[in-house]
Amino acid sequence: MKVGAVQLRQVAGDYESNMARALSGAEALMRDGCRLVVLPEMFATGYLFSSPEEAAPFAQPVMGETYQRIGALCARYGAVAVYGYMEHDPNTRTLHNAAAAVGPEGLLARYRKVHPFVADTTWAVDGNELGPYFEVDGLVATIAICADVEFPEIAARQRHYDLLCLPTAWVEEKAPSFVWLGRAREAGRYLVAADLAGVEAGVNFSGGSCIISPDGKLLAALDAGDGIVSAEISRAPERSTAGIPASLQLSLQAFEPADLALRAPLAIAEQPDLRFDLAAMRMADHEYSAEGLSRVERLLAENLRGPASCATLLVALPLATRTDHGGDDILARAARSIAGRLGYEEVLLGQVLEGPQGLERLIASSAWPDTRSQAKAASSTGLRVELLCGHELDDWVPTRRAAVEGASVALVSADTSSARSPEPRAASVIPLPPSDDHPQMDTVNRSRLRAGENNIAIAISVSGAPMPLEEAGVYGPDMLAYPFYETVADKAGWVGRLAFGPQTAPAATATLARRPYLRQRKPWLYTG
C-alpha cells in the first residue's frame, strides 16, 4: 500500500491559504496512488495560541468545515486522510488539539492529544483515550499527535497494528527526529510523520516529514518547505508483546503544566540538592580482575585531572565476563582506591558481568565495607542508581521501570556487541537552534533517547573494537534541551565526566529532580 505525508509551511491564522495548499498536496498524493495521506498537526490554523480566547475563533467541531473539505477529497479518490485540527466540543465547550481520520464513507476515527507540549497548555484540554484503530486496505493504523510519541507507551500497544500516523508540529530539533526513528524501531511498526515547516512568533518548525520502516529506517523524507513525500508499505511483522508491563501501570505525583517549563527560575529553585559527578569510559578491552580494575583506576586518573565538583563520583564500567581472578571484594577495594586517588568522599562503581548463570550486577561504594550483588542501590547521599547491560537499552521497558521506581542514574555496562553505533542524520536547511559542533550531536542515539524520555542520567561504558560512531558517554536527562548536556566518546582510552548540581548544571539537575516526562505519564490509558 502506498502512503504519503503533506508538509506545510503554515501561515498562522490564514485558514484559506493553509487549507488550499494542504488540499493540493493531499490531492497530488492521492492522484499518485496513495491510499493513506497524513497532514500536520493544526495545519490549517497555525499552532501557537496564548489563550482559549485567542484560539476559539479557529476551532471547529469534529465534522466541521475542515472535515467536510478533506472528506470530499477522500470521496473523490477513494482514499483515507489523517489530519490535525483544533476541535471545539459543543457539549463541554472545551478546546482540544485533535486529529481525525476520514475515508470515502466518512469519519473513521477521532483522537485528542493525550500528552501536551508546553504550547498546548495555554488553551487545550488533554484527551483521555488512546488513538483508535482503523483499517485501510487490510492494514491497521492508529493515531498519535506530536509530543505523544515522546512516550514509548504510546507506540508499545498490545494489539497488533501496522502503522502509526503522526500529525506533528515538531520544534527545536532537526527532523526526522531521533524520537520518531526510535519509536518505529522499538515498536516494529511503520510511522508516517507529517510536520509543519513554517515560522510562528519566531519559532521555526522542524519539517522533516517522513515515512519510517519497522526497523527504524527512513523510506522517504523531506527537509524544508511545502512538499509531499510517499512510500510503499506492507503489513508490519508480527511481534510478541505483552503491551505495558503491570509494574509500569503506576503513576508518580500529579503532573502540572508548569513542569514543562523547566528553564523557568522558579522550577530550578524548587529542585532538591542533587550533587554528583557521573563518568563513563571507552576501553579497548576490560577484564573483571584486580589488574583490570587497576587499569580502570589509571585511566580515570589520567583523564579526570580537574578538581572534583562535589563529594560523589558514579562510574559505569564496561561489560566483562565473570572470571576466577578475584572475589567480589576487588570491586569494593577499587572504589576505595579510586576515591583516595581522585579526591572524592565517595566513589560508586557499577559493573555488569556475563557469567554461566546469566547477568550479574555488582555495585560497590567506597563508603561500604563490601560489594553488593544487586541491580539497584543508593549512594551515601541517597541518590538512587540502576545497573543495566547495554542490550537492555534496545527495549524501552528496563530504563522506564528504573525511572518509575525512583532511579535518577543508570550505570550501563556494554561491549561492542551490546552497544549501538549512533546513526548520522542528514543536514537541514531550517535554521534550528544549534546543538553543538561535536558530530555526535547530529546522530540518532539510543542512550540519549532512553535518558531523555525517562528524565534520568545515563553513563554507558563500552569495551571492544572501534565502532563507526561511539555510544559510550554520559547523557543528561533532557533530550530536547540544546545544546545537549552530554559527553560522547571518540576513541579508546576516552573518559568523560558530567557534573550535576544546582550551580554546575541547574537545568539538567532540575530535570532530574522534577521528572517532567514521568509526571506527564498517564498509565491508566496505556492498556489498549
Q: Key terms for this structure?
A:
single chain, 528 residues, 13-stranded mixed beta sheet, alpha/beta
Q: Quick one: how many beta strands?
A: 29
* Main sheet attributes: strand count, strand direction, barrel closure: 13 strands, mixed
pLDDT under 50 segments (min length 5)? 247-271
**What general outline do the C-alpha atoms trace?**
elongated
What structural class do you assign from the helix and strand content? alpha/beta
What percentage of the residues does DSSP assign to strands (E)? 25-35%
Mean model confidence by pLDDT: 88
Radius of gyration: 24 Å
Description:
The chain is an alpha/beta fold and 528 residues long. Helix content is 21%, strand content 28%. The protein has twelve helices and 29 strands. Strands 15, 16, 17, 18, 19, 20, 21, 22, 23, 26, 27, 28 and 29 form a 13-stranded mixed sheet that branches. It has a six-stranded mixed sheet with strand order 5-4-3-2-1-14. Helix 7 runs parallel beside helix 8 (329-342) and helix 9 packs parallel to helix 10 (446-454). The radius of gyration is 24 Å and the shape is elongated.
Strands, helices and their partners?
Blueprint: E1 2-7, H1 15-31, E2 36-38, H2 52-55, H3 65-77, E3 80-89, E4 94-103, E5 106-112, E6 134-136, E7 139-143, H4 152-155, E8 163-168, H5 178-187, E9 190-195, E10 199-200, E11 203-204, E12 210-212, E13 218-221, E14 227-232, H6 265-270, E15 276-283, H7 290-303, E16 312-316, E17 320-321, H8 329-342, E18 346-355, E19 358-365, E20 372-373, E21 376-378, E22 384-389, H9 397-404, E23 409-415, E24 423-424, E25 443-444, H10 446-454, E26 457-463, E27 473-475, E28 486-488, E29 494-500, H11 506-514, H12 516-520
Parallel strand pairs: 1-2, 2-3, 7-8, 8-9, 15-16, 15-26, 16-18, 17-18, 22-23, 23-26
Antiparallel strand pairs: 1-14, 3-4, 4-5, 6-7, 9-12, 10-11, 12-13, 15-29, 18-19, 19-20, 21-22, 24-25, 26-27, 27-28
Helix pairs in contact: 1-3, 7-8, 9-10
